[in-house]
Amino acid sequence: MQDFQVRTHYCGELSLHDKGHRVVLYGWLHKMRDLGGIVFVHLRDISGISQVVFDSAVNKDLHDIGAALRHEFVVRIEGTVRARPEGNDNPLLTTGEVEVVADKVEVLNSCDTPPFSISEDGKISENLRYQYRYLDLRRPGQQEKILFRSRVLSAVRRYLDEHRFHELETPILTKSTPEGARDYLVPSRVHPEGFYALPQSPQLFKQIFMVSGFDRYYQICRCFRDEDLRADRQPEFTQLDIEMSFTPPRELFKIINGLMAYLAETVVPLMTVPEVIPEMTYQDAMDRFGSDKPDLRFEMEIRDVSDIVDSSDYGIFRNAVADGGHVKVLTVPGGGSFSRKVIDDLVERAKQIGAGGMGWARKDETKYQSPLLKFLGDSLMDKVFERAGAGVGDLVLFVADKWKISLNVLGTLRLELADKLKLIPEGKFEFLWVTDFPWLDWNEEEKRPAAMHHPFTKPHLDELEKYRDEPLKIRSQAYDLVLNGTELGGGSVRIHQPELQKQMFDYLHIPEEEAQEKFGFLIDALRFGAPPHGGIALGVDRLVMLFLGEDSIRDVIAFPKTQKATCPMTNAPGKVSDRQLREVGLTFRK
Q: What would the pLDDT profile of 310-321 be if each residue is shown by its tens digit?
């Protein structure tokens, strides 16, 4: 066994307090400068960088060894700490006031020429970074993201432990249950034709914990969903899962509000969290911002002008309102200066999103300009601009369609235009609770109601009878936490009474036999004294991404998959042998 000298300090810890002390450092050679008689190297470890000096006037042989070192060699260095000569401090390094005069050096391992620079933050293709992820993660900027993530999770555990939560684990190999996305299936060797599924979330098991009497549960868990990827999605991701018994939703909001404030205090000092995170209903969020996760860092609210234009001479507006639709408008501040080409491009973009078309109007000091002016006239246009909060130099966009389509179009344009016009301030954090989501949604493909969140979400009980024949009007006791227009996570009060759960399955057209097959163990558990309970699941990857101001969760995951759900480093997913397939009773169909 190799005799290792004990490390006395990490590279990023040295300061003037260590002046004159002998130290033993381990790390990678980050940078070097050979000035002939003196060689300066930067030695890097997980904590930072120290400058090491090899001086030929002190030790010629050691100087020659130092000059032969190369980038990313792994070395042990022994020497004495001294203050840097006056005027040679490096303010970019936390150790910039000192350096180590080496008297011993040992190369523990050499390094082939890396495929990209470790010491410089140049732009590198994602595939190359992920192919050599072990090198990419050596780069200080990448390491800091992963270390920041670790600090966030440590703080989460401290906070929840202090609030009487218990960290409990749930299975990874479980049963396939429909939860909105495709399951990853795992064939069983010992149970022919049987399959496990990787969990999309611990939803059912955390409810079982509540039935079991563990009244405050949390877990930092891995979840798996076989779905199309984008910037904030991965096939495997990390979730902060929380469940509480005997607790109204406002108590859960208070816990999460406190958690965000604690993270701001301990980990994200530039973030401010209000004493009470504001709330907005789903209906209000959609009506005002065209999104159930509105970005509140800038204004630009959508307005409804249906009552103003429904009797105008413009048939498209009249017909849309008569058919139960709406005429919605969005004011673009300063958009009156857009060229006709830019406006025409906006109209085309609205069509791409789903609108049949889009009208527009702008006003200079004396008159309106709009293809709609001949139908609305100055009088109605005055009322529209007043409702829209628009003035001279602004652009007003009109969409007439069904409620959801008109809002989706203008909500999407709102975000795109805010980005284009640079209306979104940097470094600002706007939290929001969105509440009272619809209990049911309409599945157009299957022509039946579907659960808006999942089939275990409790409705507002006073609306069950009120909207018995119009179940799509029933609101649920579901809620999402939103930060800067991104859904951090969602949760709800759960159904804890078997009769109500059966009623939910009836609304979803799920026969009793099918419900028992898919969710039998939970349905049975509800019959044995299940307490009132509810919870939330927060996306850890999204949380860290937003705290760091990154654009993709891939930037804050140690070993992410590409947009095609592959791992260039391990070449996963990969093929398996015919023997392995036979063991689980599978074969590929030509």
A: 989 899 999 999
Is pLDDT at 1 greater than 60 in this prediction? no
pLDDT tens, residue by residue, 174-183: 988 765 688 9
Domain map (residue ranges) of the chain: 11-109, 143-278+478-496+531-572, 298-424
Instruction: State the Cα–Cα distance between residues 160 and 263, nearest whole angstrom.
Output: 12
> How many Cβ atoms sit within 10 Å of the Cβ of residue 49?
25
With left for phi above 0 and alpha for psi between -120 and 50, is residue 453 left, alpha or beta?
A: alpha
How many CA atoms lie within 13 Å of 547's alpha carbon, on the beta-carbon side?
A: 27
> Could you please report the per-residue DSSP string of 276-324?
S--EEEHHHHHHHHSSSS--TTS---EEE-HHHHTTSS-HHHHHHHHTT
Residue 387 has pLDDT above 90, yes or no: yes
CA distance 193 to 206: 28
Per-residue pLDDT at 432 exceeds 60 = yes
Q: Tell me the average pLDDT of the chain.
A: 94
- What whole-number distance in Å separates Cα of residue 442 and Cα of residue 449? 5
Record the tokens describing residue 414, joined without a space. Answer: 């709102």
Domains 143-278+478-496+531-572 and 298-424 equal at CATH topology level: no
Residue 93 neighbours by CB under 8 Å, 6+ apart: 48, 49, 51
548 to 135, 277, 298: CA distances (angstroms): 21, 21, 20
The answer to whether the pTM exceeds 0.90 is: yes
The mean pLDDT value for 412-439 works out to 96
DSSP-derived 3-state class of residue 183: coil
Confidence tier at 465 by pLDDT (50, 70, 90): confident
CA distance readout (Å), 413 to 98, 276, 347, 397, 465? 54, 30, 10, 10, 38
Got the DSSP string for 187-217?
E-SSSTT-EEEE-S-SHHHHHHHHHTT--EE
pLDDT at 2: 55
* CATH of the structural domain 298-424, one choice from 3.40.1000.70, 3.40.50.170, 3.30.1360.30, 3.30.365.10: 3.30.1360.30
- The residue whose two tokens read 């349905």 is 523
Look at residue 242 and give its three-state secondary structure: strand
